[in-house]
Write a structure and sequence with these properties.
mainly beta; 19 strands; 3% helix
Length: 276
């Protein structure tokens, strides 16, 4: 188990990954290559219906500085510079997207045995300032995530979260969208040696009294093949199988069926990720 409470984004992450990660209804292909000088180039293409999206990412590492440059089919250029450990426990991130002149952002992250803090500010005349902080340990943690728009003088985001963990169980409670949505999640590692786990998420929206209940499970058929499944109270059932056919290279097939409209065709997603 990791030391310290981690960042706010890690509250409930285990359950979210089990219930939602790698599920898709699109067709995606990703290939990564490395040059002799250590530059990593990743090309990705995604087919969404009749729409084809693609991007190319170049990553360069020099000591503790990592630079990522991403170009997509909309002619956007996203650059991210990450400085790891300029001081103990600290990480600095600078990002901007061209041609959007208001996209620049500077972020600082700090990890401590009893705290995890992340703060960011937009590089504009009237920036949006974000702060998230977690206090506690790797067993019990309490955190908040807020954003303030200096132009309007309003809080655009105000969330809070609580997490409890032990060797094989992680439970979390989140209050999101300025108190309008409350979500509770649960992750239980049943057989760690076979990567067998159960997960659940219950969400209630106060504005319309809508409840969403999602249940899921995963299991490793062998050291290289994992199956996952989930179902929610709206009748949507999803399943996937993922095979690591060579180190760091995965082939994933996922599907979705609406059990309340079984006459409709199932949605099938394919993903292939290749790494040397």
């Amino acid at each position: 188990m990791a030391k310290g409470p981690g960042l706010y984004t890690e509250i409930g992450k285990k359950a979210r990954d089990l219930l939602y990660k790698d599920y898709q209804s699109d067709h995606k292909f990703t290939v990564t290559t490395y040059s002799p000088t250590g530059v990593a180039i990743t090309c990705s293409g995604t087919k969404k219906g009749e729409l084809l999206l693609a991007d190319v990412t170049t990553q360069l590492k020099n000591k503790n500085i990592t630079t990522d440059v991403k170009v997509d089919t909309d002619s956007n250029l996203l650059t991210t510079v990450t400085i790891d450990q300029p001081a103990p426990g600290l990480k600095a991130i600078l990002s901007f997207k061209l041609p959007d002149q208001r996209s620049g952002k500077a972020e600082l992250q700090y990890l401590h045995d009893y705290a995890g803090i992340s703060t960011s500010v937009g590089l504009t005349a009237n920036p949006v300032v974000n702060f998230s902080g977690v206090l506690g340990t790797n067993l019990l943690a309490l955190g908040t995530d807020v954003s303030f728009d200096t132009k309007t003088g309003n809080f655009t985001k105000c969330n809070a979260g609580l997490s409890f963990s032990n060797a094989d169980l992680i439970a979390s409670l989140n209050l999101n969208e300025k108190g309008d949505v409350v979500s509770a999640s649960y992750y239980h590692s049943v057989y760690p040696e076979q990567n067998t786990a159960l997960g659940a998420e219950v969400t209630h929206r106060f504005a319309n009294s809508e409840n969403t209940i999602t249940l899921g499970a995963q299991h490793a058929l062998d050291p290289l093949t994992t199956v996952k499944g989930r179902v929610n109270n709206f009748g949507k059932a999803n399943a996937l199988i993922q095979h690591e056919w060579r180190p760091k290279s995965f082939f994933t097939v996922s599907g979705e069926v609406d059990t309340r409209a079984i006459e409709k065709s199932a949605k099938i997603g394919l993903a292939l990720a290749l790494k040397p």
